[in-house]
Fold 6-phosphofructokinase.
Amino acid sequence: MSERVAIMTSGGDSAGMNPAIKCATDYAIANGMEPYLVYDGLRGLIDDKIKKAEPEDVSGILHRGGTVLRSSRSKRFFDYDMRAVAYKNLKDKGIGKLVVIGGDGSFNALNQFHADFDIPFAGVPATIDNDIPGTDYCLGVDTALNVILNSVDSIRDTATSFSRAFVIEVMGRHCGYLAMVSSLACGAEICLVPEIDYDLDQMGERMRLEKENGRTYLIAIVAEGVKMGDYLTRWIGDTLKMDARLTVLGHTQRGGSPTVRDRIMAYHFATNAIDSLQRGETSRIMTYQDGVYGTTSVREVAEGKAVMGEKLLKLCSPLCR
Ligand SMILES: Nc1ncnc2c1ncn2[C@@H]1O[C@H](COP(=O)(O)OP(=O)(O)OP(=O)(O)O)[C@@H](O)[C@H]1O
Ligand SMILES: O=P(O)(O)OC[C@H]1O[C@](O)(CO)[C@@H](O)[C@@H]1O
Ligand SMILES: [Mg+2]
């Protein structure tokens, strides 16, 4: 009997999940495995929403955002008895391996599941937060950055027309990657992120001088994780005496058709995940670091912390003061 592998998505959806689902399914079949699909993420694992993959399940999905397998954040998966139900569901179908496409929390969940029942799995990093230790890139990040870029470019049109300041909040639960990269790409004047200490006094002085030299509008990008959107908007009004508005981009950043980068990265990560399982590895997370594809241990992901590149931090530092 060919080896059965279940493919699932978990945590916040991200563009690139669908290409990863399709590639993992097609590549598993091409390599003699029998793929199954888990619907609704970890919740579906407990509720037995698991079915054998048919080619039509994954056809015509490459260009679609989100995840056709749907996703969830499951409280029940923290409970050992519920994880035991999930394991039994897999075992009853003869499924002995898993490909999990998700973020750091999903890999923590699988680390626990593996410790409980010794079921081998391979992780495909997919989260717009880009906060998985050991990899420079997670699926969905490029698409989210392009959504942000388009939004900020549009906001700049009205900001210049009305001589206003705009504070734009971008996602990132604890991580400022989206804020930093979009600040550089969009030419923001101010950027606030959890990774860099900010200095409002210095920032006020810098903006005051810029205003004296003819600046009429400004763009500030803040990461969700610093929780400064409201405060900064009021501060700009009070300190810089500018008409200021706050725009929270919210879940728009999670949607959209995956970019070329997210589709191609999905091919690499998904095929590498199947290769990892076929090599007999039991708990590796796919990575892309310094231009090289590889894997890291789930323990490193569970115990580590994502580190932002020195160069990126250096480029953004002047925008924080
Ligand atoms: N230690 C753990 N034990 C059991 N389950 C866990 C554990 N940590 C996380 N989970 C499960 O994994 C789910 C996914 O994690 P989380 O919600 O943090 O999203 P994520 O995978 O990090 O993606 P994103 O950050 O992009 O939304 C959680 O909702 C929870 O059900
Ligand atoms: O969709 P939810 O559950 O509101 O979660 C939002 C969170 O998920 C993320 O979008 C990551 O997927 C974070 O940036 C954000 O904090
Ligand atoms: Mg996460």
Residues 10-12, 42, 73-74, 77-78, 102-106, 108-109, 112, 127, 129 surround adenosine-5'-triphosphate (ligand 1) (CB under 6 Å). The longest helix spans residues 141-162. The domain at 3-140+258-305 is CATH 3.40.50.450 (Rossmann fold). The chain has two domains: 3-140+258-305, 143-254.
